[in-house]
Amino acid sequence: MDSVGDRPGVPSGTTLRFATLVLLAVATTLQIFGLYATVWPAAAKLDEARCQVRSNLYLTSTFQVDPDESKWDAYRACMDVFLGGRAVWLISGLVLLFAVASLIYALRPAWLRYRRNLAPVPGELVEPLAELVAEAGLSKAPTFLLDRGNVRAGGVAFGTHRRKYVALNVGMMPLRRTEPESFRAIVLHELAHVRNDVTITYATLAIWRAFVIAVLTPYALTWLNPMLLTTTPWRLPQFPEGWFTLSALWHVAVLVLLVFAARVAVLRAREKHADATVVRWTGESDPYRLLQPAGRLRRWLGHHPAPSSRQAVMRDPKSLLRPGFWETLGSTIAIQLAWWHTVTALHDLTWYREGNGSHLVMRIVWALPMAALIGVIAWRGAAFGLRRGTVALPGLAIGIGLVLGDQLDIRNASPITVPRVLATIALAGTAILVTLWAGHCATLVRTRPQRWFLGASIAFVTFSLLGWVSEVRAAGPVWRDTMVPIMDILHGHAQSLANEIGLKAVAIPYLLNFNRVPTAVALALLWLVPLVLRREFPRVAALAGLIGGVLAAAAVVLLGSAGTPLEATAWQVIAVVVVQLVVVAAARVDRVGALLTAWLIGLAGTAAIWLTHLNGDQVDSVLARQPHQVLPVLGTLAALVAGGYGLQRAHVRSAPIWAAGIAVVGVALAVWRPGAEASAAVIEPPPPAATEINTDEAVNIWIYGGGWDRMMAVVRAQDKVFAGVRAADPVAIAAGCEALGPVLREPFPLPPDAKIATTWTEGLRAMENGTRSCLVVFRDAGKDDGSMAAEFLKGLDQLEVTQTALIEAQKRAIS
How does residue 296 score in pLDDT terms, banded at 50, 70 and 90? Predict the structure, then answer.
């Protein structure tokens, strides 16, 4: 963990950028070696498509889950044959990447000493350098060397975590005599690298070089010559293989650019932190005298930032604490891509699927690094000072990064729909709000236990409020297959247009909040954590919540007979939300107080709705079972819209027991819910009549999964028959017909398109009939009644129609 200036322990950003580089390198390696696993060895080529065809389970972009478990069992049993090879490819890629990086990291110091012909520094520099080492506070001095071939004034720090070096150019010798202060500043700059980041710097360079050598270069060679992945690597390819497409190429190209950008970001950040350290040691805002502006190309691609940028940091070293937009964006994209590619790898190994807890495990795996990123932003933002945009802009970067990371995943073939756009906007907005909340809470932390408490809270809030990121790409199918049928059901229950609007307004958040308990806990933490850290209780907000609770209960009672029980419940929930908006706006409390006020009103509204709908031990409306599945969400939105615009109220110093008790009660209401009467309207989509798939995509899978090979086998077998016909050789004709029969009868799944399956079946049946007539005539010396030629011609016509339909479906699937 780096430090900035006189604030030890506060993350500086270099480590964050290095983690970004590692994640991006891992993500790209998994993608490329995952592609290798699909085409090598030849026996495993297109294995997933074959398994889908054999099990009649087509995994297309419609996100339909086939309920037939026997198909899934057959698919997994088929894939088990290939799992070992795929796992070996994926693990080997990562092992190769880090093995080559470790080798480069370990050997680079010796290589630099040899290539630059470095020698020990002359005796006249030993004592001055020892004084500077002491001034830098280094417990162990680096080994100083002299680069006799470089006459420019400067130096470079290099080495490993065990042994570090500082190579000074020979131009530093006259500089010490002519400008001793510049000599001192340059040496201190290199010692700052020794103290802060030599290990990260050369690990960065090692990972980049290993990435180019072990991952990028082999991929480029195989893209140019796909035959390198075959047993005949020197044969010129006739056409690119299936995965060597422009789509795969541009995905990999973007990933490579991101990896390179992360590398440059690490190297430039380290220079700024070294400059800030020199400013602290020397007390000068411009300790250097010899900064020369870099050329435009070096400015874009070089290791050093622009001189103006370095000078700005030296004038205000504290600016390094401010979390940056671009570094946050890169880190978020890295987390997203690394997570998606890991999920893809686990999916290919058939572990990531419904029913085995893998989705929950991987959601936690995603939440931990994302929470760490948000925590670093909050920590640095609090140290810098929460001015306008300090954490809001990084929060926006997180939102954009989540969307871009999802879009850059090569497996993301789902179309961009209105529900998906709305879901991404909601996700980005939530990311901004969560980051703002974390930044505010970080300013309240004073002790280590509080820091751990806040970290755990950020992790849970991230898991709950942002953890549905993997479901964004499924927003279209969810809306189409779940929400639209429910909207039709509500249309049938509503007695008027106004009632239909009210029902839908409540039903949508009710249904989308399917993880109601984690959501309730996360929303409670939004106001509970600041109160616990401040050890205060907002008396005005609590009083406003109690008054609002009475008003909400009265509104619920008044609306208890507003139409059917289902309609009445919807209007009661809406009334509680209106009370939350009005009371929060009238109370003019701060944002935390507004959240508490809305929470208390929601508790009272939930209790009132239960009581007004209770009939014995059950309620008469399915919405009345759990109004607290909706009210915390809508109440939080109401508090954010109407609250926080008044003056800061004086809060009562108090232990957090009262606030914690209120939060526990609210969560308990989300956990428990009464039963509903059997006559209560059910708000659930009807079971699908049949699993829908994208037929064109399924046909394309059938083609690659052996369907085209099956057709070509029939074509080749019938060609032998016609070769005998053209040669007028009865023996050859009979032999061809005998060989054609088993090929036609070979069991293979039909194409997943009904029309294509019909023409395919009719073609095979006609060919089978022609084969039987052929054997009667040419093998058994029977009479030719003309059926052989007629059936063969009919079969050829049907197979031609089938072939044309297959090609057209494939074009539509890949367009």
Answer: very low
Rg over alpha carbons for the chain, rounded to the nearest Å, is 34
Q: Residue 301 pLDDT > 60, yes or no?
A: no
Query: What is the DSSP secondary-structure string of 435-455?
Result: HHHHHHHHTT--SHHHHHHHH
Burial profile 1-39: b = 16 or more Cβ within 10 angstroms, e = fewer: ebbbbeeeebbbbbbbbbbbbbbbbbbbbbbbbbbbbbb
Q: Residue 85 to residues 48, 349, 705: CA-CA distances in angstroms? A: 13, 10, 18
Structure-derived torsion over alpha carbons of residues 493, 495, 498, 500, reported in degrees to the nearest 10: 10
- For the sheet with 675-676, list strands across it: 614-615, 618-619, 675-676
Q: Residue 451: which residues within 8 A CB-CB, separation 6 or more? A: 445
User: Which amino acid does the sequence have at 118?
Assistant: L
What is the Cα–Cα distance from 540 to 183, expressed in whole angstroms? 62
Kindly provide the b/e burial profile for residues 480-496, where b requires at least 16 CB atoms within 10 angstroms of the residue's own CB.
ebebeebbebbeebbee
Six token digits for residue 345: 């790898």
- Token representation of residue 37: 């696993």
Distance in angstroms (rounded) separating the CA atoms of residues 700 and 712: 16
Residue pair 349/86 in contact (Cβ under 8 Å)? The answer is: yes
Burial of 276 (C-beta count, 10 Å sphere; 0-12/13-18/19+) = buried
DSSP 27-73: HHHHHHHHHHHHHSSGGGTTHHHHHHHHHT----TT------HHHHH
Closest CA to 184 of 128, 115, 250, 228: 128
Residues 352/353/359/362 CA torsion (nearest 10 deg): 0
| CA 264 – CA 300 distance, rounded (Å) | 9
> Does the pLDDT at position 188 exceed 80?
yes
405-418 in b/e form (b: 16+ CB < 10 A) is bbebbbbeebeeee
The vertex-131 CA angle with 125 and 137, nearest 5°, equals 135
| C-alpha pair distances (Å), 553 with each of 575, 603, 631 | 9, 10, 13
- Say which residues have a Cβ less than 8 Å from residue 327's Cβ, sequence separation at least 6: 13, 16, 17, 20, 265, 269
- Phi first, then psi: what are they for 237, rounded to 5°? -70, 145
Task: Tell me the pTM.
Answer: 0.79
What are the tens digits of pLDDT across the range 64-77? Answer: 667 777 887 888 78
Token representation of residue 292: 């020369």
Per DSSP, which regions of 530-593 are E strands? Answer: 536-537
The interaxial angle of helices 47-55 and 695-702, nearest 10 deg, is: 110
Residue closest to 776 by CA, chosen among 813, 734, 742: 734
pLDDT at 397: 94
pLDDT tens string 315-371: 888 888 888 898 899 889 989 888 888 888 787 777 777 777 888 888 999 999 999
Q: Which two tokens stand for residue 158?
A: 């290099």
Give exposure, 797-813, as e/b (b: 16+ Cβ within 10 Å).
ebbebbbebbeebbeeb
Q: The dihedral of CA 618, 623, 624, 627: what is its sign?
A: positive
Do 773 and 659 contact (CB within 8 A), yes or no? no
Lookup result for tokens 């964050």: 16
Token pair 């040669």 is found at 727
Give the separation between CA 193 and CA 243, rounded to whole angstroms. Answer: 44
Burial of 731 (0-12, 13-18, 19+ CB in 10 A): exposed
